[in-house]
Amino acid sequence: MKKLLPLLLILSACSTTSNVSREIASTKRGVSSAEEDFSWVEQLDFDKKKEEKYNADKDEFDFSSSDESSYALVKESLGSLAPAKLEEALKGNDDPLTVMNIKCYQGKYDEALKIADDQYTKFKNNTSYWNQLGTCYFLKSDYAKAILFYNKSRDLDSKYIPPVNNLGVVYQKQGKYQKALAAFKLASDLNTFAVTPTYNLAQLYLRFGTVGKALPIFQGLQKRSPKDVEVGSALASAYLIKGDYQSAVDIYGKFDKATLSTPSVGLNYAVALKLLNRPIDAQTVLSNVSSPSGPISEYAQKVERFIRN
């Protein structure tokens, strides 16, 4: 499921401009023959372009040759891939919708939207096309257009899960948590095998302290994707909030150094160790955490004070 065009195409405008230019040029040459006046028109201009309908087999990212092959969330969305991995995924990829999606996650919005514009005729009735376009605008923080195109995708297929889930992501970003919850539930109910909406639903439960609802979901997801770092980290956080510090530490202890240096992971690991009366280990983990930025900075300061005391 690919996560995440309001393109008002200007093809007709461009065509009109081109026609007028040719007409002026023809007049200047003094050409009067109707046949010669329209000699610049090619039959290709009127040939109907073949549309490409939605193909579920192409709606999953293939990382069969890399470590990400066992990461359920990565198969459905590129959001958690590092920049180097995004660039790697782009090489040799000739699927325009996938390329558009990657460009959006790389922040190359003009290039992505140019692809969307060029591919409009081919994919205008393809539900995945509108979903990808919605994601591009979501990443640009243009939530109104994101919602517009996610709904356009749903108009073509109301049972297509990605735009339903993605609407939930937008609503959550806007602070509309009840609407987000409803969207995640609907997406999860539409396909119980879809990992991303189920994961998002559990994360929302966890955000508001309903660990009893979140924990079994994360446990189920980890059984399906035991090497998925995001799932494992979420499960460890749920154990931490529940007060099962040892279970949290057991999960964190399996992560590599690079993962533990991520503030969202390493800070919680340090807290769990401290609560298990392992202050030296907690300080060691904390010292290897990368400098946080943004909203997590305040939490990092609280964790540091807790660990040092």
From TrEMBL:
Task: List the SUPFAM superfamilies.
Answer: TPR-like
Q: Which SMART domains does the record associate with it?
A: TPR
Among InterPro entries, the record links this protein to: TPR-like_helical_dom_sf, TPR_rpt
Name this polypeptide is given: Uncharacterized protein
Lineage, top ranks:
Bacteria, Pseudomonadati, Bdellovibrionota, Bacteriovoracia, Bacteriovoracales
